[in-house]
Amino acid sequence: MKAVLALEDGSIFRGESFGTEGEIIGEIVFNTGMTGYQEVLTDPSYCGQIVTMTYPLIGNYGINKEDIESAHPQVRGFIVREVCTTPSNWRSMESLNEYLKRNNIIGLQGIDTRALTRILRDKGTMKGIISTREDFDFSKKEVEIKTYEIKCPVTQVTTKEVVHYKGNSFKVALIDYGIKQNIVRSLLKRDCDVHVFPAWSKPEEILAIDPDGIMLSNGPGDPKDCVEEISTLKQLMGKRPIFGICLGHQLTALANGADTEKLKYGHRGCNHPVKDLKKDMTYITSQNHGYTIVEASLDKNRMVVSHRNMNDGTIEGIKYLDSDMFTVQFHPEASPGPADTAYLFDEFLAMMKKRRSQNA
Fold first, then answer.
1. Into how many domains does the chain fold?
2. Rounded to the nearest 5°, which phi and psi values hold at 106?
3. What is the domain range of residue 111?
4. Which end of the chain is more exposed for a tag (fewer CB within 10 A), N or C?
């Protein structure tokens, strides 16, 4: 079925729909990964966004039940140059088209995704609409597109109750701002006893389980909107070792008096080079974020940049000098290497082990 993509600046792309039909408005972003489309679709950090894949052929290995990051797709829409209708992989259970249709997600194919990506790179991330309506009229939708907002995305994607994954080693309180399941898997792989808490959990509720450490997950949206979550972090800092990823990284910086700002078009993909400044080594990382920490706002007496993005120089990690706490902007659990930055989980375990020995 014919479909149209319209950006808020008036740019129009015409192609064909797949998945379901209808009309959806969202923030248009692009992902540079050659693979991993299933993880992209189910990553809660994409809540409220329409994702464009820059690699031209998507869907060639289908959809399986092992590679999902949450219970259902989180994107509002999905844009590709060409969708594969006959996937070939021994794990495949259904095609990308069938998966999106079953989950009521609109897909768009047959447009020049390279041209779309260039617009987003030049002008920055924009809002837009995908429509399969024959009578689509941009002038009637322009105001609605431009005024669209992603409202309280963290509360939309966080767990609604505490979830316990039993392990025999360190007890970890994992605060869920929009968690990717591979974070849980990475902790369970190390035999941690994981308790996943809703984003709105109070400090006393988290500390009541007497965790060995606290982990802060990824999540969607503007970190400055998470006022209550930042207040909670201020009360948790110094009480237990803390390891933060993505949104958790940004919220920790805000809780420590630093500032954040929106990137022009964000970092999204599984091929972003990041340098560990202490190790003097560069790793290929997976990323999905639209905001970054303002370096000039760091308290240099307490906060040290530990990792840096080799493409644009932005902050990718912070080590806190006055407590057992470190955070990274990228996703060490996402395995693009496949295990290049998994050492960060081991460093978190080392901090928890140190605390146990000191309290023994």
1. 2
2. -85, 130
3. 2-150
4. C
